[in-house]
């Protein structure tokens, strides 16, 4: 059985840099407090914990060691509170997330009502929303239908949104808004990974996506794969692989979410090799 690993499977550069910052800082300072999980992957969080990076849920808990702000971005009021407490801040915010923050502020500055296309309650969306006054967060075309008619609107999206969902929501907004300005803030690693998974799902008999079930972008990759190839499966680790998935398959395409570490992907590829040989 042929195994095709997507060229850019796994960590995007934003996550890789944030994880490296966490590890280097822990080595340098002995201990680092991380406000929330740095990436949505339990294995990475456990590895970081072993290196001295402790997850805390509030700034109060963070006192006593430098506090690391994660790749998805941190709400504006948390930044202010951390500064007010004179905490040492290690900024792991992905530059592409910071760019979304700047774009959305600019749209608000133009006097536009803000619509953020993204998942309700997702850390990155909460961070983007904190940059402006009273934005609308919309996750689906059905939710966009609920919005009132508006005159001037600025739209950005969460970096890991699916292009199809964003396009469908914009379609609805075009009917409701007179003056609409959309800044495409789906980040380029996400766009590239989504294109890769489409090609992978077309070319191979089976598709396996590696990543945590808490990771929005891993789940999106799996759902794109499944629309093209119904033999698409998501696994969190190699232990989730089922031998029957590969029955009579001649090829398997493997990809992974942006928060999946290289070792997990390698272990899954190795296990597929073993299953194929057996
Ligand atoms: S998914 Fe995109 S925006 Fe998010 S951390 Fe990775 S590169 Fe940055």
- Based on CA inertia axes, which overall geometry fits? flat
Q: What is the terminal separation in angstroms? A: 11 Å
| Count of helical stretches | 11
Question: Which fold name fills CATH's third level, the topology of the largest domain?
Answer: Cobalt-precorrin-4 Transmethylase, domain 1
| SS class | alpha/beta
Order of helices and strands: EHEHEHEHEHEHEHEHEHEHEEH
Which homologous superfamily in CATH is the superfamily of the largest domain?
4-hydroxy-3-methylbut-2-enyl diphosphate reductase, catalytic domain
CATH architectural category of the largest domain: 3-Layer(aba) Sandwich
Bound molecules: iron/sulfur cluster
- Summarize model confidence as the mean pLDDT: 94
Low-confidence stretches: none
Write down the Rg.
20 Å
Sheet having the most strands: 4 strands, parallel
Number of strands: 12
CATH class of the largest domain: Alpha Beta
Helix fraction bin: 40-55%
The largest sheet has its strands arranged as 1-12-10-11
Q: Beta fraction of the residues?
A: 15-25%
Number of domains: 3
């Amino acid at each position: 059985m042929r195994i095709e690993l997507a060229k850019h499977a796994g960590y995007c550069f934003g996550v890789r840099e944030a994880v490296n910052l966490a590890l280097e800082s822990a080595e340098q300072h002995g201990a680092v407090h991380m406000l929330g999980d740095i990436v949505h992957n339990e294995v990475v969080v456990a590895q970081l914990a072993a290196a001295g990076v402790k997850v805390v849920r509030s700034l109060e808990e963070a006192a006593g060691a430098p506090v690391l702000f994660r790749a998805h971005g941190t709400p504006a009021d948390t930044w202010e509170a951390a500064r007010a407490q004179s905490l040492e801040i290690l900024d792991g915010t992905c530059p592409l997330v910071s760019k979304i923050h700047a774009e959305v502020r600019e749209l608000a500055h133009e006097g536009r009502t803000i619509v953020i296309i993204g998942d309700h309650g997702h850390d990155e969306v909460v961070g983007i929303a904190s940059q402006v006054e009273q934005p609308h967060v919309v996750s689906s075309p059905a939710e966009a239908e609920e919005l009132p008619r508006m005159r001037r609107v600025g739209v950005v999206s969460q970096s890991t949104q699916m292009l199809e969902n964003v396009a469908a929501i914009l379609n609805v907004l075009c009917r409701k808004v007179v003056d609409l300005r959309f800044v495409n803030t789906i980040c380029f690693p996400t766009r590239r990974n989504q294109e890769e998974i489409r090609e992978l799902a077309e070319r191979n008999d089976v598709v396996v996506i590696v990543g945590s079930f808490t990771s929005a972008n891993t789940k999106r990759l799996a759902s794109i794969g499944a629309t093209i190839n119904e033999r698409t499966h998501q696994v969190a680790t190699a232990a989730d692989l089922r031998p029957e998935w590969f029955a009579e398959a001649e090829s398997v395409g493997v990809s992974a979410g942006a928060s999946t570490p290289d070792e997990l992907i390698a272990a899954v590829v190795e296990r597929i090799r073993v299953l194929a040989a057996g």
